Each structure stands twice: as structure tokens, then as C-alpha cells.
Fold each of these.
Amino acid sequence: MRIGYCQFNVAYADIDRNLQKVTNLLENISADLIVLPELCMTGYCFSDRSELLQLSSRENHNKIIQTLSSIARSKHLYIVAGMSEAENDSLFNTAFIIGPNGIAGKHRKVNLTNNETIFSRGNKCEIFEIAQVKIGIAICFDSWFSESFRILSLKGAQIICCPSNFGGHWTLDVMKVRALENSVYTIMSNRIGCEQIGHEQADFRGESQVIDCGGNILIQANDDECVGIVEVNPEVANIKENIICNDMEYERRLYSKYVKYSI
């Protein structure tokens, strides 16, 4: 399976420009699964809730889905795209799985940072099957909580997609650990550029990456607009062995009397 990321500088509040950028970046690629950054169609730093609600209108939502579905159809691939989602009067930081036939699944961000007070929280950790491969989604700060990846892996995830917007270095390290401790592939797609709210500037570092089941980086971006693709074998995910243990499943079960996961 050919998987990867599409990293770019998201234009603030300019959906048409972002759609065109994604269209151009994916024009000549060959892949089965591509992950775009978190909130990649609107930008991230909104202090005015009404502005993001307007950008999340049904008309804009349909335009984004139709455009990405058209790309997916022409390229025979699936796209995981971070978007703002309006439902009634609520806003969600959501990642949609979009395939040749439209929406194939979605995940609403569960763990919200102090900068994301305009959003409501998601409450599900679900698995979606595409091309006979089981994938899960964790959006940026979700990955800081081991429970998110553990529940997805217990449900059988072979690849976990992580649309992101961050500037610090910690998430890069966190993703290696999540891949290793759960024996899953991870695709982290982080944006580049900067945004301004009042006197505060948010800088995004890029460095998107694909990590294998042993916590090794297979491919990593720098801080430019790019697409990175690598071929992997999802069937090797969820194996019992890792570099220092022959039966990780047994070791995990030792903690079952202390921790119960609802899967």
C-alpha cells in the first residue's frame, strides 16, 4: 500500500485557494492513502466563532467534499482531510476520510487545546476499512493521550492517520512512541507557515512523517510544501513482537486488572 502526507501552507479563511493548492500538489502523485493537515481548508487560529461557522457552511462543506472526491476518483485513492464541521450550532474539529464515492468516515477531535475553545469535543474512537486495510484517526493533540492509539489498535487499526497543526517538537517524538507501543503505522501530516491572532503568532513547523510499526521514520518532510509517499505492508501491523519482546500482547494483559478499555 502506498501511503503518505501532503504538507502545505494553509491560506487563512480561503477555501478556494487551499483546494487549488491540494489539487496542484496531488496532480502527479500515485498513492492509495494521503493525509492532509488539520483544519487544512480554513486555517487554525480563529478567535471569532461566527467567522468559522460561516466558513463551515453547507455550501462550503459540499464544495470541499466534491473537489476532494473528484481527486480521489481520478487518482483511485483515499484522502484524510482535517476540516471544520458545523452541526446545528456546534463546531467540530473533524477529519474526514474521502474516497472515490465521497465520505467514507470521520473522526471528531476529542482532546482540545486551550486554543480550541470554540469547538465541541468528539466522543468516539472508530475504525474504518479502506481497500481492505483498517485505519484509525487521531487529530494532533489526540495523539498525546496513549489511550487514543491503544483503543484504535485494540480495534485492529493497521494505520493511524494524524492530521496536525503544531509548532513545537514534542509531537514528533510522541508519534514514534505511539507507533512502537501499538505496532501500527502512523501518518502525521503537519502544515507549514504562520497565523496571527491579535499580538500572538502561531508558527507551524511541518516535518510531516510516516512511521513504521517499530517507531522508525520511513519518510519525513522539511518545512516546504511537498507530498511524501512510501510503500508499506499493512499486514505486518499488530504483530506481537517488537525489538525487545516476543509477546507484547501478553505484557499488556498484565495491566488488565488496572485498566479497562471500552472498545
Amino acid sequence: PLLDGERGFWTVDALDGTRSYVDGFDGYCVQVAYIENGVVQLGVIAEPANSTCFAAIKGRGAFALTESAIARNLKLDPNSAWPAKPRFVDSTLPKGPAGAVFQRLGAELLECGSVGLKICRVAEARAELYAKEFNLKIWDIAPGEAILSEAGGRLVDWAGEPFPYTGKVAHFSTVAAIATSHFERALPIVPAR
């Protein structure tokens, strides 16, 4: 089976941000992850439009590499203050419960199309939060999780739970990418019912 938690497997998303690519916008990427025993071990996200490649290996850090061959270490400041106007990354203004959080936080929008790149925008501190409710798949999030977690952030569902990379679950319905230092401020996304 595709998701056998006892063995290692690769996820490949050959074109994340298809709509951006088709419409001529920069927000697309190619992303790959390696998962072993339910843990993302390696993630790579290539952003051709900006000649940047994000990469992380579990326990070894996260980096952004440019065509000039300079590797920038991605490390979120654990002592950073919550900004007066936090940046919320998405392709459009958020709606529903995520839109309510956007309004509550007084956020501003940072536009980006690809799920993987949205996660990277949080990992490189260009945005404080990404939250979305839609049908996402393991290959949409695993590469970004490797990068974000090594940079000092968390990728979770809206209940604050990590994603399971074992068993046969390949589809999820909510995602949130947040710097660990800001986690309590941004979650829970969904109000208690």
C-alpha cells in the first residue's frame, strides 16, 4: 500500500499550485518528501519562479538555497513578538472559520498559491500564519512540514493535532502552519461548538 507506516515511502507533488501555474502566477512549486515510520525525514520544495529551493532533513535544520548557491538557514526566532498586524498567507482572502481568525487577528494578506510555498512563507518568517479548510493530501503537506518543523514551527490540523503519516490516511480537511512561539495565540482556529 502507498502509506505503509512500517516502511519508508516517498511523496511527490510534481506541480503544487497548478492554478497559479496555469494562470501565469509565480505561486507554484515541485515538492518531495521521504517518510519513515510515520515521521517526515526529508522535505524539498523547489520554487522555479524565484530560483529558490527549500530543504530540510530531520535534526539537521532547514535551508533556503538560491541560484547564487547561498544557503540561508531558516530559523524562526522563539522570542519574536506577535506583530500588531500579523501576515496571513493564502491565495485569496480567507473565508469561514479561517476568515474569522484573519479578522480577529487584524491580519494582512500575503498572497501565495501553492500549499507547500505557503508553509515555507511561515518557515522563512514572511508570514505568521497559514490556515485553510479544504481537501488536502499528504503530498501537499509532508515536504512543508519537514521544513517548517526544522525552522521552529508547527504544522497541525485545526484542533492542534499533528498529521498522522502512518496507516492509510492520505486526505485531510484542515491545516495550520504557525511559528511555535505564536502557536497559542493563533489556535484554536475553529470556535468551540
Amino acid sequence: MLDVITIGSSTVDFFLETEFPLRPWDSSLGSAMIIPLGEKFSAIKSLITTGGNAVNTAVTFKRQGLRVATAIKLGGDIAGQMIYNRLQEEGIKDKFVVWDGDAMTSRSAVLLEHGERSIITYQGSGAALTISDLDLKKIRAKWWYVSLSGDSYKLFPIIAKKSREMGVKLALNPTMKHLRDGKKQLLANLKYTDFLVLNEGEAAELTGVPFSERLEIFKAIDKLVPGIVAITRGSKGSVVSDGSHVFKTGIFKEKKMEDRTGAGDAYGAGFIAGLIRAKAERGECGCDTDKLEYAIRLATANSASVVEHIGASEGALYKRDFDGSSRYKTLKIVKDRIK
């Protein structure tokens, strides 16, 4: 049996590192790039590579020594072939890849500025998964890792209920569109979720509680999710709840911030890889806290490595890199009981 099948989006990402002037702006980072119309500009660096939640996470799982496949939809174009080739290069099983010869594969233009980025996305085939594309009875694994882009979020109730019926553990990273447009169905089906990963903004959107009231957010989500909840906080680290305790940690300071694209995928996939590896290597007798802290450490390390590279999965850690590096051996994790 496979360890993980990732279900969701796949894209080709075009990265351009720029030096556009910045201006104050009402946005998450408080600034905006100024790009005058009608002029040409030179990029400092350029890279064309693969992206999308399902591909990014599959790369991490494979590099961590797990048996992984991905369920994605590709268009019949060069971009689709490029994604397929990446799966072959990484050794990711492709038996659940669906081809639509009439569709254009999803793609994104990513403008980088000092490690931060703005992304323009054409949804394409990656956001057009339908239930007929997923033969869920045949997609058997210990875990499904799900992140559905575009209108494919509408598949979540079917996927969630089927995971419980088949005895598959379900990991979910909802998109902001899923949280806003499909919030009602999401809330109704989180009871099937074994692992939920969100960033601060997504957690606030889901609960209606500002992230400054962190414990209230976890109390709200823990009532909905029977499994583990992880909330990433960018450079501030992450907070994880198992329903009884909250685990707070910082980050492994990056050597150089190159690109934040894929950091969330790296954390989520690293966490599940950590849980699977801890169970395999330490057995069922290992205490839950030990396994959770191992998963947090691997997730944090993987995210740090990814942001040190341009591209959403280029820096994903290999098993040997995590196990053999003194850099990732220790991470301060503070454990508090939820009152």
C-alpha cells in the first residue's frame, strides 16, 4: 500500500526576480510593487519549474523515503508534459494522473522581490478536478493529502466521507477560496479530518476569531477537527494542537531568504512525513508527544529549506539531509495544556 496520495493542484511556475519600487499598500505585507504600463524591465533571475499543492507535497513525501502517488489533472500541452516529467524525475507514481487534451495546464507567474512574492495564476486543468477524475475506490493509501484549488473544492465532502469509509487518514490544507466560497460544507465535514493545516489568515477566516486570540481559535477548531491542527505563522514559527495541548515553536533561521512560495506545503507535507516516519521508526509504543515534536521539527526544517531556494519544492529535504544534519537536531518546542 502507498503511504500517501496527494490530491489537488499542479502548475508550471514562471519565476522572475525583480527590483520594482515598493509603495505602502493595504495588504498582508503592507506594500505593493509599482509596475508602470508600457515599459520593459529586466529580471535578475529566472526559473521555470513545477508547482501546485499536490505536486509540491508529493515531492516532499518522496524525498522523505515514502511511497507516494499524486492525483492531478493535466492539460495536453507542453506545461502538462513538464509536470509529468517532474513526477518521473522524482519517482512519484503517476497512475492517478488524469489528462485532458482539450484543457490548458495551470500556470503561474511569480514576481519575486527580496524573498517575498506576488503570484498571478491561470487556474486551468489543475483547478478542474471532478469526481469522475478520481476513482476513489482505487486510490488506496494510508493517508490522503488534500488541497483543492479553484472550484474543485466542491469535491471535499465526497473525498472526506470516502476517506472515513475506506479507513484512510485525511490531511487537509484548504485554499482561501475553499474557506470563503465553501465554508459551510467545509465546517460540516471537518469531522472527518485527521490533520488540518492553515496559516494565520486562513485560521481567522475559518473561525471568525482574530489570531491574536490564539487559544480561542484552537478551542473553536478543536471542536470541529478530531485530529491535529497546525497553524503556520511565517517567520514567527507555528502552533500545533492535538486537542489537549498546544505546541509552540519558532523556525530554523534560513541561511538566505530566496522565495516563500511553497513554504506552507513544505510544512504540511513535512508534518505528515514526520508522523509516518516516527511511527515506522519508533513503533506504536512511542509516546504521542515524542511523535508530534518529531513531526513539528521535520515540518519546520523542510519549510526552512524550501524558502532558501527559488521554486515551491526545489529545496524540499531528502531524508538523508534531515537525518544527517546537525542543523535540524534540536528545536525549542513549548508545550502548554489547553484550559
